[in-house]
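Hi, here's the filled form for the chain we discussed.

Project: internal
Contact: R.S.
Residues: 480
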Amino acid sequence: MRPRASAPPTVALYAAGQLPAYLRPTLVGRLTGGLGLTSTQAGALGSTLLLASAAAALLLAGRVTALGPGRTARTGLGLLGLGCALAATGPHLPLLAAALATAGLGAGTAIAVATTALAGAPDPHRTTVRALLATSGTAAGLYLLLPHFGTGPAAPFTAVALTALAAAVPTGGRPDRRSGPARALRRGTPVKRGAGTRTGAAVALILTVPFWSMAQNALWGISGQLGHRQAGLGEGALGLVFALALFGGLLGVTAAGALGSRIGRALPIGLGTLVIAGCALLTGTARGPVAFTTGELLWNLLHPLVLSHLLGLAAALDPSGRRAVQTTAASALGVACGPLVGTALASGVGYPGTGALLAALLAVGAGPLTLAALPRGPRRSLVPGPASVRPPRRRTTGRRPAGTGPAVRRTVAHPAPARPTDVRPVAARPVVRIPEQRRPAPTAHPDEHPDSSRTARSGYASSSARNSASRSTPDGSSLT
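And the returned structure, exactly as it came back:
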Protein backbone atom coordinates (compact mmCIF):
# COMPACT_ATOMS: atom_id res chain seq x y z
CA MET A 1 0.00 0.00 0.00
CA ARG A 2 1.52 3.31 -1.08
CA PRO A 3 1.79 6.01 1.58
CA ARG A 4 -0.06 9.25 1.15
CA ALA A 5 1.82 12.02 -0.60
CA SER A 6 2.96 14.83 1.61
CA ALA A 7 1.13 18.13 1.45
CA PRO A 8 2.83 21.18 -0.10
CA PRO A 9 4.65 23.51 2.28
CA THR A 10 2.12 25.22 4.51
CA VAL A 11 3.40 28.77 4.03
CA ALA A 12 3.44 28.50 0.23
CA LEU A 13 0.02 26.85 0.21
CA TYR A 14 -1.48 29.59 2.35
CA ALA A 15 0.07 32.34 0.24
CA ALA A 16 -1.28 30.81 -2.98
CA GLY A 17 -4.78 30.46 -1.54
CA GLN A 18 -4.93 33.99 -0.16
CA LEU A 19 -3.31 35.71 -3.14
CA PRO A 20 -6.57 36.31 -5.11
CA ALA A 21 -8.02 38.19 -2.13
CA TYR A 22 -4.88 40.31 -1.77
CA LEU A 23 -4.86 41.09 -5.50
CA ARG A 24 -8.60 41.71 -5.68
CA PRO A 25 -8.32 45.47 -6.45
CA THR A 26 -5.99 44.78 -9.38
CA LEU A 27 -8.05 41.84 -10.64
CA VAL A 28 -11.30 43.81 -10.55
CA GLY A 29 -9.64 46.87 -12.06
CA ARG A 30 -8.16 44.90 -14.94
CA LEU A 31 -11.56 43.35 -15.67
CA THR A 32 -13.07 46.82 -15.86
CA GLY A 33 -10.40 48.35 -18.07
CA GLY A 34 -9.32 45.39 -20.18
CA LEU A 35 -12.61 43.65 -20.93
CA GLY A 36 -14.90 46.67 -20.92
CA LEU A 37 -17.07 45.45 -18.04
CA THR A 38 -18.92 47.88 -15.84
CA SER A 39 -17.82 48.47 -12.27
CA THR A 40 -20.85 46.58 -11.00
CA GLN A 41 -20.12 43.56 -13.19
CA ALA A 42 -16.43 43.50 -12.27
CA GLY A 43 -17.27 43.85 -8.58
CA ALA A 44 -19.78 41.02 -8.81
CA LEU A 45 -17.17 38.79 -10.45
CA GLY A 46 -14.65 39.58 -7.74
CA SER A 47 -17.25 38.81 -5.07
CA THR A 48 -18.03 35.52 -6.85
CA LEU A 49 -14.40 34.44 -6.54
CA LEU A 50 -14.24 35.26 -2.83
CA LEU A 51 -17.64 33.76 -2.01
CA ALA A 52 -16.70 30.50 -3.74
CA SER A 53 -13.46 30.47 -1.76
CA ALA A 54 -15.31 30.97 1.53
CA ALA A 55 -17.86 28.26 0.67
CA ALA A 56 -15.15 25.71 -0.14
CA ALA A 57 -13.30 26.46 3.08
CA LEU A 58 -16.47 26.07 5.15
CA LEU A 59 -17.34 22.76 3.49
CA LEU A 60 -13.86 21.35 4.14
CA ALA A 61 -13.60 22.53 7.77
CA GLY A 62 -12.77 19.48 9.89
CA ARG A 63 -12.58 17.11 6.90
CA VAL A 64 -9.07 17.74 5.59
CA THR A 65 -7.43 14.98 7.63
CA ALA A 66 -9.96 12.38 6.50
CA LEU A 67 -9.64 13.36 2.83
CA GLY A 68 -5.85 13.49 2.87
CA PRO A 69 -4.02 16.84 3.08
CA GLY A 70 -1.67 16.20 0.14
CA ARG A 71 -4.30 15.11 -2.34
CA THR A 72 -6.77 17.80 -1.24
CA ALA A 73 -4.16 20.56 -1.43
CA ARG A 74 -3.03 19.64 -4.94
CA THR A 75 -6.62 19.38 -6.11
CA GLY A 76 -7.28 22.89 -4.83
CA LEU A 77 -4.14 24.29 -6.40
CA GLY A 78 -5.06 22.63 -9.68
CA LEU A 79 -8.53 24.21 -9.65
CA LEU A 80 -7.04 27.59 -8.77
CA GLY A 81 -4.50 27.42 -11.59
CA LEU A 82 -7.07 26.19 -14.11
CA GLY A 83 -9.62 28.88 -13.27
CA CYS A 84 -7.06 31.70 -13.38
CA ALA A 85 -5.53 30.44 -16.61
CA LEU A 86 -8.97 30.37 -18.21
CA ALA A 87 -9.78 33.85 -16.90
CA ALA A 88 -6.50 35.18 -18.30
CA THR A 89 -7.72 34.47 -21.83
CA GLY A 90 -10.49 37.03 -21.41
CA PRO A 91 -13.55 34.94 -22.34
CA HIS A 92 -17.13 36.15 -22.43
CA LEU A 93 -18.99 36.96 -19.26
CA PRO A 94 -20.66 33.56 -18.54
CA LEU A 95 -17.44 31.61 -19.09
CA LEU A 96 -15.50 34.20 -17.10
CA ALA A 97 -17.88 33.80 -14.16
CA ALA A 98 -17.46 30.01 -14.27
CA ALA A 99 -13.66 30.39 -14.42
CA LEU A 100 -13.58 32.70 -11.41
CA ALA A 101 -15.91 30.41 -9.47
CA THR A 102 -13.56 27.49 -10.20
CA ALA A 103 -10.58 29.54 -9.10
CA GLY A 104 -12.41 30.49 -5.91
CA LEU A 105 -13.17 26.86 -5.10
CA GLY A 106 -9.51 25.99 -5.56
CA ALA A 107 -8.35 28.90 -3.42
CA GLY A 108 -10.74 27.94 -0.61
CA THR A 109 -9.55 24.34 -0.72
CA ALA A 110 -5.91 25.42 -0.45
CA ILE A 111 -6.76 27.75 2.43
CA ALA A 112 -8.59 24.97 4.28
CA VAL A 113 -5.60 22.62 4.08
CA ALA A 114 -3.09 25.32 4.97
CA THR A 115 -5.13 26.61 7.90
CA THR A 116 -5.56 23.10 9.28
CA ALA A 117 -1.79 22.64 9.17
CA LEU A 118 -1.25 26.03 10.82
CA ALA A 119 -3.57 25.07 13.68
CA GLY A 120 -1.60 21.86 14.28
CA ALA A 121 1.80 23.55 14.29
CA PRO A 122 3.81 23.60 17.54
CA ASP A 123 3.50 27.42 17.63
CA PRO A 124 0.39 28.37 15.60
CA HIS A 125 0.83 32.12 16.10
CA ARG A 126 4.36 32.35 14.75
CA THR A 127 3.58 29.99 11.88
CA THR A 128 0.56 32.12 10.97
CA VAL A 129 2.72 35.23 11.06
CA ARG A 130 5.17 33.64 8.63
CA ALA A 131 2.31 32.71 6.33
CA LEU A 132 0.90 36.25 6.43
CA LEU A 133 4.35 37.69 5.82
CA ALA A 134 4.85 35.44 2.79
CA THR A 135 1.44 36.40 1.42
CA SER A 136 1.99 40.12 1.94
CA GLY A 137 5.48 39.96 0.45
CA THR A 138 4.27 38.06 -2.63
CA ALA A 139 1.40 40.50 -3.14
CA ALA A 140 3.71 43.49 -2.73
CA GLY A 141 6.15 42.11 -5.29
CA LEU A 142 3.34 41.51 -7.78
CA TYR A 143 1.96 45.00 -7.24
CA LEU A 144 5.37 46.33 -8.24
CA LEU A 145 5.78 44.03 -11.27
CA LEU A 146 2.29 43.93 -12.79
CA PRO A 147 2.24 47.54 -14.09
CA HIS A 148 5.09 46.59 -16.45
CA PHE A 149 3.05 43.87 -18.19
CA GLY A 150 0.21 45.77 -19.79
CA THR A 151 -3.24 46.78 -18.59
CA GLY A 152 -5.31 43.70 -19.46
CA PRO A 153 -6.43 40.92 -17.12
CA ALA A 154 -3.93 38.40 -18.51
CA ALA A 155 -0.98 39.50 -16.35
CA PRO A 156 -2.56 39.28 -12.84
CA PHE A 157 -4.48 36.06 -13.51
CA THR A 158 -1.40 34.44 -15.06
CA ALA A 159 0.65 35.46 -12.01
CA VAL A 160 -1.86 33.78 -9.68
CA ALA A 161 -1.89 30.64 -11.85
CA LEU A 162 1.91 30.44 -11.82
CA THR A 163 1.97 30.91 -8.04
CA ALA A 164 -0.46 28.00 -7.64
CA LEU A 165 1.70 25.87 -9.93
CA ALA A 166 4.83 26.71 -7.95
CA ALA A 167 3.14 25.82 -4.67
CA ALA A 168 2.04 22.45 -6.06
CA VAL A 169 5.55 21.37 -7.03
CA PRO A 170 6.47 18.38 -4.83
CA THR A 171 9.35 18.94 -2.46
CA GLY A 172 10.23 15.26 -2.03
CA GLY A 173 10.80 13.45 1.19
CA ARG A 174 8.44 11.47 3.31
CA PRO A 175 5.03 12.76 4.35
CA ASP A 176 5.08 15.16 7.25
CA ARG A 177 3.30 13.35 10.02
CA ARG A 178 4.32 15.78 12.72
CA SER A 179 1.63 18.38 12.11
CA GLY A 180 -2.07 18.48 12.60
CA PRO A 181 -4.25 16.24 14.72
CA ALA A 182 -2.09 13.15 14.19
CA ARG A 183 0.85 14.85 15.87
CA ALA A 184 -1.38 15.98 18.70
CA LEU A 185 -2.65 12.46 19.29
CA ARG A 186 0.83 10.98 19.18
CA ARG A 187 2.27 13.33 21.77
CA GLY A 188 -0.74 13.13 24.06
CA THR A 189 -2.03 16.65 23.35
CA PRO A 190 -5.81 16.84 23.61
CA VAL A 191 -7.61 17.20 20.29
CA LYS A 192 -10.65 19.06 21.45
CA ARG A 193 -13.94 18.38 19.78
CA GLY A 194 -17.43 18.98 20.92
CA ALA A 195 -17.44 19.57 24.65
CA GLY A 196 -13.64 19.72 24.73
CA THR A 197 -13.55 22.99 22.81
CA ARG A 198 -14.51 26.42 24.13
CA THR A 199 -17.69 26.40 22.10
CA GLY A 200 -18.94 29.79 23.29
CA ALA A 201 -15.69 31.54 22.49
CA ALA A 202 -15.48 29.85 19.08
CA VAL A 203 -19.06 30.84 18.17
CA ALA A 204 -18.45 34.44 19.26
CA LEU A 205 -15.27 34.57 17.20
CA ILE A 206 -16.80 33.07 14.04
CA LEU A 207 -19.91 35.30 14.20
CA THR A 208 -17.96 38.52 14.84
CA VAL A 209 -15.07 38.11 12.41
CA PRO A 210 -17.24 38.64 9.25
CA PHE A 211 -18.34 42.09 10.51
CA TRP A 212 -14.80 42.92 11.62
CA SER A 213 -13.48 42.07 8.16
CA MET A 214 -16.43 43.61 6.28
CA ALA A 215 -16.10 46.98 8.03
CA GLN A 216 -12.44 47.32 7.13
CA ASN A 217 -12.83 46.16 3.55
CA ALA A 218 -15.80 48.47 3.08
CA LEU A 219 -13.59 51.39 4.04
CA TRP A 220 -10.73 50.08 1.91
CA GLY A 221 -13.04 49.81 -1.08
CA ILE A 222 -13.89 53.52 -0.97
CA SER A 223 -10.50 54.79 0.25
CA GLY A 224 -9.45 55.88 -3.23
CA GLN A 225 -12.56 57.94 -3.82
CA LEU A 226 -12.49 59.28 -0.26
CA GLY A 227 -8.87 60.43 -0.48
CA HIS A 228 -9.37 62.00 -3.89
CA ARG A 229 -12.71 63.73 -3.38
CA GLN A 230 -12.75 64.58 0.33
CA ALA A 231 -9.08 64.71 1.42
CA GLY A 232 -7.98 66.50 -1.75
CA LEU A 233 -5.14 64.14 -2.72
CA GLY A 234 -3.99 63.77 -6.32
CA GLU A 235 -3.34 60.47 -8.08
CA GLY A 236 0.40 60.51 -7.37
CA ALA A 237 0.01 61.42 -3.69
CA LEU A 238 -2.75 58.87 -3.25
CA GLY A 239 -0.59 56.14 -4.78
CA LEU A 240 2.24 57.07 -2.43
CA VAL A 241 -0.08 56.84 0.57
CA PHE A 242 -1.27 53.38 -0.46
CA ALA A 243 2.31 52.23 -1.05
CA LEU A 244 3.29 53.39 2.43
CA ALA A 245 0.20 51.68 3.83
CA LEU A 246 1.27 48.41 2.21
CA PHE A 247 4.74 48.81 3.67
CA GLY A 248 3.10 49.48 7.05
CA GLY A 249 1.23 46.20 6.68
CA LEU A 250 4.53 44.36 6.30
CA LEU A 251 5.82 46.11 9.42
CA GLY A 252 2.66 45.06 11.24
CA VAL A 253 3.19 41.42 10.33
CA THR A 254 6.82 41.63 11.46
CA ALA A 255 5.79 43.26 14.74
CA ALA A 256 3.20 40.53 15.30
CA GLY A 257 5.91 37.88 14.88
CA ALA A 258 8.24 39.67 17.28
CA LEU A 259 5.50 40.21 19.87
CA GLY A 260 4.12 36.69 19.70
CA SER A 261 1.78 35.82 22.54
CA ARG A 262 3.88 37.33 25.33
CA ILE A 263 1.06 39.62 26.46
CA GLY A 264 -1.73 37.22 25.61
CA ARG A 265 -4.35 37.66 22.90
CA ALA A 266 -7.09 39.67 24.59
CA LEU A 267 -5.12 42.92 24.76
CA PRO A 268 -3.86 42.97 21.14
CA ILE A 269 -7.26 41.96 19.78
CA GLY A 270 -9.42 44.24 21.93
CA LEU A 271 -7.23 47.32 22.04
CA GLY A 272 -6.12 46.89 18.42
CA THR A 273 -9.72 46.70 17.20
CA LEU A 274 -10.62 49.84 19.14
CA VAL A 275 -7.67 51.72 17.62
CA ILE A 276 -8.68 50.48 14.15
CA ALA A 277 -12.17 51.84 14.82
CA GLY A 278 -10.62 55.21 15.63
CA CYS A 279 -8.62 55.06 12.40
CA ALA A 280 -11.78 54.32 10.42
CA LEU A 281 -13.46 57.35 11.96
CA LEU A 282 -10.40 59.53 11.29
CA THR A 283 -10.10 58.37 7.68
CA GLY A 284 -13.81 58.71 6.95
CA THR A 285 -14.04 62.23 8.34
CA ALA A 286 -10.64 63.46 7.06
CA ARG A 287 -10.74 66.84 5.35
CA GLY A 288 -7.03 67.05 4.57
CA PRO A 289 -4.02 64.94 3.56
CA VAL A 290 -2.50 64.69 7.05
CA ALA A 291 -5.54 63.17 8.75
CA PHE A 292 -6.21 60.82 5.84
CA THR A 293 -2.59 59.62 5.66
CA THR A 294 -2.36 59.12 9.43
CA GLY A 295 -5.53 57.06 9.52
CA GLU A 296 -4.51 54.88 6.58
CA LEU A 297 -0.98 54.18 7.81
CA LEU A 298 -1.94 53.38 11.39
CA TRP A 299 -4.87 51.25 10.26
CA ASN A 300 -2.80 49.15 7.84
CA LEU A 301 -0.12 48.75 10.50
CA LEU A 302 -2.54 47.31 13.07
CA HIS A 303 -4.73 45.20 10.78
CA PRO A 304 -2.27 42.29 10.22
CA LEU A 305 -1.22 42.34 13.87
CA VAL A 306 -4.80 41.86 15.07
CA LEU A 307 -5.55 39.39 12.28
CA SER A 308 -2.62 37.18 13.25
CA HIS A 309 -3.85 37.05 16.85
CA LEU A 310 -7.37 36.21 15.68
CA LEU A 311 -6.10 33.30 13.61
CA GLY A 312 -3.87 32.20 16.49
CA LEU A 313 -6.89 32.30 18.80
CA ALA A 314 -8.91 30.18 16.39
CA ALA A 315 -6.08 27.64 16.24
CA ALA A 316 -5.82 27.54 20.04
CA LEU A 317 -9.55 26.93 20.43
CA ASP A 318 -9.35 23.75 18.34
CA PRO A 319 -5.98 22.20 17.39
CA SER A 320 -7.73 20.01 14.81
CA GLY A 321 -8.01 23.14 12.62
CA ARG A 322 -11.78 23.24 12.26
CA ARG A 323 -12.27 26.58 14.02
CA ALA A 324 -9.30 28.13 12.22
CA VAL A 325 -10.74 27.18 8.83
CA GLN A 326 -14.16 28.51 9.80
CA THR A 327 -12.64 31.78 11.00
CA THR A 328 -10.69 32.21 7.77
CA ALA A 329 -13.81 31.48 5.70
CA ALA A 330 -15.82 33.95 7.78
CA SER A 331 -13.18 36.59 7.15
CA ALA A 332 -13.39 35.84 3.42
CA LEU A 333 -17.15 36.43 3.56
CA GLY A 334 -16.52 39.84 5.04
CA VAL A 335 -13.92 40.63 2.40
CA ALA A 336 -16.37 39.67 -0.35
CA CYS A 337 -19.22 41.79 1.03
CA GLY A 338 -17.10 44.76 2.11
CA PRO A 339 -16.84 46.74 -1.15
CA LEU A 340 -20.57 46.42 -1.82
CA VAL A 341 -21.42 47.62 1.70
CA GLY A 342 -18.95 50.51 1.47
CA THR A 343 -20.34 51.70 -1.86
CA ALA A 344 -23.93 51.48 -0.61
CA LEU A 345 -23.16 53.41 2.59
CA ALA A 346 -21.15 56.07 0.78
CA SER A 347 -23.99 56.73 -1.65
CA GLY A 348 -26.54 56.80 1.18
CA VAL A 349 -24.98 58.66 4.13
CA GLY A 350 -21.82 60.12 2.60
CA TYR A 351 -18.19 59.53 3.50
CA PRO A 352 -18.24 60.96 7.06
CA GLY A 353 -21.36 58.96 7.91
CA THR A 354 -19.80 55.82 6.42
CA GLY A 355 -16.68 56.25 8.53
CA ALA A 356 -18.75 56.79 11.68
CA LEU A 357 -20.95 53.73 11.08
CA LEU A 358 -18.01 51.47 10.29
CA ALA A 359 -16.13 52.73 13.36
CA ALA A 360 -19.16 51.99 15.55
CA LEU A 361 -19.44 48.49 14.08
CA LEU A 362 -15.78 47.81 14.86
CA ALA A 363 -16.09 49.19 18.40
CA VAL A 364 -19.08 46.96 19.11
CA GLY A 365 -17.27 43.92 17.70
CA ALA A 366 -14.27 44.52 19.96
CA GLY A 367 -16.28 43.30 22.98
CA PRO A 368 -17.09 39.74 21.81
CA LEU A 369 -13.62 39.31 20.34
CA THR A 370 -11.98 40.31 23.61
CA LEU A 371 -14.21 37.98 25.63
CA ALA A 372 -13.39 35.13 23.27
CA ALA A 373 -9.66 35.81 23.70
CA LEU A 374 -9.69 35.91 27.50
CA PRO A 375 -7.74 32.99 28.98
CA ARG A 376 -9.61 30.23 30.72
CA GLY A 377 -8.63 27.58 33.22
CA PRO A 378 -7.04 24.28 32.19
CA ARG A 379 -9.31 21.90 30.36
CA ARG A 380 -9.32 18.16 30.81
CA SER A 381 -7.85 16.13 28.01
CA LEU A 382 -10.33 14.14 25.94
CA VAL A 383 -7.65 11.89 24.48
CA PRO A 384 -5.71 10.06 27.19
CA GLY A 385 -1.99 10.28 26.71
CA PRO A 386 0.89 8.59 28.44
CA ALA A 387 0.80 11.12 31.27
CA SER A 388 -2.86 10.40 32.03
CA VAL A 389 -2.27 6.83 33.26
CA ARG A 390 -2.56 6.96 37.03
CA PRO A 391 -0.86 4.53 39.40
CA PRO A 392 -3.07 2.35 41.58
CA ARG A 393 -4.57 4.28 44.45
CA ARG A 394 -2.96 3.64 47.78
CA ARG A 395 -4.91 3.85 51.01
CA THR A 396 -3.37 4.20 54.43
CA THR A 397 -5.23 2.34 57.13
CA GLY A 398 -4.66 2.05 60.84
CA ARG A 399 -5.66 -1.03 62.85
CA ARG A 400 -5.43 -1.72 66.50
CA PRO A 401 -5.53 -5.47 67.11
CA ALA A 402 -6.99 -6.58 70.41
CA GLY A 403 -4.53 -6.69 73.27
CA THR A 404 -1.75 -4.76 71.52
CA GLY A 405 -0.26 -1.33 71.86
CA PRO A 406 -0.88 1.75 69.63
CA ALA A 407 -2.21 1.25 66.14
CA VAL A 408 0.35 0.26 63.54
CA ARG A 409 -0.03 2.25 60.28
CA ARG A 410 0.33 0.11 57.22
CA THR A 411 0.12 1.04 53.53
CA VAL A 412 -2.09 -1.37 51.63
CA ALA A 413 -2.14 -1.40 47.82
CA HIS A 414 -5.52 -2.15 46.31
CA PRO A 415 -6.55 -4.41 44.68
CA ALA A 416 -3.31 -6.41 45.31
CA PRO A 417 -3.85 -9.04 48.07
CA ALA A 418 -1.82 -9.02 51.23
CA ARG A 419 1.52 -10.69 50.94
CA PRO A 420 2.10 -14.01 52.72
CA THR A 421 5.04 -12.50 54.57
CA ASP A 422 2.92 -9.85 56.28
CA VAL A 423 3.48 -10.03 60.04
CA ARG A 424 0.29 -9.67 62.01
CA PRO A 425 0.48 -8.92 65.75
CA VAL A 426 -0.56 -11.88 67.91
CA ALA A 427 -2.37 -11.34 71.19
CA ALA A 428 -0.28 -12.22 74.26
CA ARG A 429 -1.09 -15.61 75.84
CA PRO A 430 -2.19 -15.72 79.46
CA VAL A 431 0.48 -16.41 82.05
CA VAL A 432 0.64 -20.08 83.20
CA ARG A 433 1.20 -20.47 86.93
CA ILE A 434 2.14 -23.80 88.55
CA PRO A 435 0.82 -24.47 92.01
CA GLU A 436 3.32 -23.77 94.82
CA GLN A 437 5.47 -21.90 92.33
CA ARG A 438 6.00 -18.20 92.83
CA ARG A 439 7.61 -17.32 89.53
CA PRO A 440 5.40 -17.38 86.40
CA ALA A 441 6.22 -19.67 83.57
CA PRO A 442 8.21 -17.99 80.81
CA THR A 443 6.20 -16.87 77.81
CA ALA A 444 7.30 -18.06 74.42
CA HIS A 445 8.83 -15.44 72.16
CA PRO A 446 6.67 -14.61 69.13
CA ASP A 447 9.39 -15.78 66.80
CA GLU A 448 9.69 -19.21 68.43
CA HIS A 449 7.68 -22.15 67.30
CA PRO A 450 4.52 -22.66 69.39
CA ASP A 451 5.37 -26.34 70.02
CA SER A 452 8.75 -25.46 71.55
CA SER A 453 7.04 -23.10 74.02
CA ARG A 454 4.52 -25.77 74.97
CA THR A 455 7.29 -28.36 75.46
CA ALA A 456 9.26 -25.98 77.63
CA ARG A 457 6.29 -25.28 79.86
CA SER A 458 5.34 -28.99 80.23
CA GLY A 459 8.94 -29.94 81.09
CA TYR A 460 9.14 -27.24 83.71
CA ALA A 461 5.90 -28.43 85.31
CA SER A 462 7.05 -32.10 85.41
CA SER A 463 10.33 -31.21 87.09
CA SER A 464 8.53 -29.17 89.73
CA ALA A 465 6.19 -32.06 90.49
CA ARG A 466 9.08 -34.48 90.93
CA ASN A 467 10.81 -32.09 93.28
CA SER A 468 7.72 -31.86 95.42
CA ALA A 469 7.33 -35.63 95.53
CA SER A 470 10.96 -36.10 96.59
CA ARG A 471 10.56 -33.90 99.65
CA SER A 472 7.74 -35.88 101.35
CA THR A 473 6.25 -39.39 101.62
CA PRO A 474 2.71 -40.54 102.21
CA ASP A 475 3.35 -41.07 105.90
CA GLY A 476 4.74 -37.57 106.25
CA SER A 477 8.43 -38.42 106.61
CA SER A 478 11.00 -36.85 104.47
CA LEU A 479 13.00 -38.84 101.96
CA THR A 480 15.96 -36.55 102.27
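Let me know if anything looks off before we file it.
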